[in-house]
Amino acid sequence: MRILTCLGDATSIDTWSNTPFFLLEAGKSARFLDDGWRLDTKVLRYHRLAWNAARTMKRLERGGFQYSPSFLRRLIEQVQPIDVEAEVLSHFPLFPPLESGVRRTSFYIDATLTQNFNDYGLVGRGGVGKEMAYDAVARERDQYEAADRIVCMSRWAARSVVEHYGISKSKVHVVPPGANLPANESTSFVAKSGGPVSPLRLGFIGKDWRRKNLQFLLQIADVLHARRVPVEIAAAGFEPDTGPRHHLLKVVGFIDKRHELSTFVRFIQSCHFTCLFSNAEAFGLSNRESLRLGIPVLARDIGGISDTMPNGCGHLFDASAQPEDVAVTIESYARNLDRYWALHSAVAARSEEFTWATAVGKLQAIWSGSDEYVYERINSYA
């Protein structure tokens, strides 16, 4: 028996950008996963208020309830006892807590808490208290030590597990996740072939458009426009009145994949490139979705993004790259359409690499004893 868990309902498509849901579906189909825990964090909101109030009275730092032993203890109380031989695969490195009685635990994470606290600026300023963050990281280290294995979605995350937490490289593996799209007709597509590219359509996906650096993409568009390259930025994930205004920007709003999956697929496939130039990014699943649908990616080498896009699937730019640098690359495709369509066809031919079925196959290999995806080996190829 192998159970998937996260901070929330692992069986719901609404949880954590759909990742547990699609992993669980693929895992069940491959007989790798049996079930997912249905946890309700919302019922603990009053406990959160009481916890923060108590800390205020004691003149302790507020913030970080979800990392506290109190929160984790109350969350595990929602779970029915499991067989001693059952294994839990968790997306959250503090859950299930060591004192829960769960004997076999492995982790599949996009980032360590150290990375989340540092890269996303979660500590202080009304976020997670410094003392809570320090205590959470200490407990996280204990969780990793006790775990059977730690699978990371990127080498960036794996490096943190090894270097920040002192975990043996032989215990840490790297498996990039699949695209959060169902493996049915909604992800089948007819690859485009030839034809004009005017205007050149650059896609952007993300609710947090500031962190994902939409402004940088707009600066790229300005450079292209000045060079007389017809260009348009198509953005999804946020409502028009909550984002920036720009004469080259077309905002389509939030697309709910639960009810508008075909709309989401059409949006991606209407783009010539999708772009992710984030200031901080643990992984970047939108890149995997684009590649699954045959669309090349342009991205910045930040966090775990490099492992979202293998060589030959687009262009990965150094974190110091300027809008002009990216614009030169894009212009080279706009001026040589045969080169663009060759790239497009190459990406489309690799679509199956970016499915959850492929990712689960790698997880199964790890659980069967393979060292093919162990961090030490993968990192030596980087």
Explain what you see.
With about 375 residues, this protein is of the alpha/beta class. The protein has 2 domains: about 1-180 and about 355-380, Rossmann fold, CATH 3.40.50; about 185-355, Glycogen Phosphorylase B (Rossmann fold). About 35% of the residues lie in helices and about 15% in strands. It contains 13 helices and 12 strands. It has helices at about 20-30, 45-55, 70-75, 115-120, 130-145, 155-165, 215-225, 260-270, 285-290, 325-335, 335-350, 355-365, 375-380; strands at about 1-5, 35, 85-90, 105-110, 150, 170-175, 200-205, 230-235, 250-255, 275, 295-300, 315. The strands form 2 sheets. Strands 2-1-3-4-5-6 form a 6-stranded parallel sheet, with helices on both faces. Strands 9-8-7-10-11-12 form a 6-stranded parallel sheet, sandwiched between helices. Strand 5 (about 150), helix 6 and strand 6 form a beta-alpha-beta unit. Helix 7 (about 215-225) crosses helix 10 (about 325-335). The longest helix is centred in the middle third of the chain and has 17 residues, at about 130-145. The radius of gyration is 22 Å and the shape is globular. The two termini are about 35 Å apart.
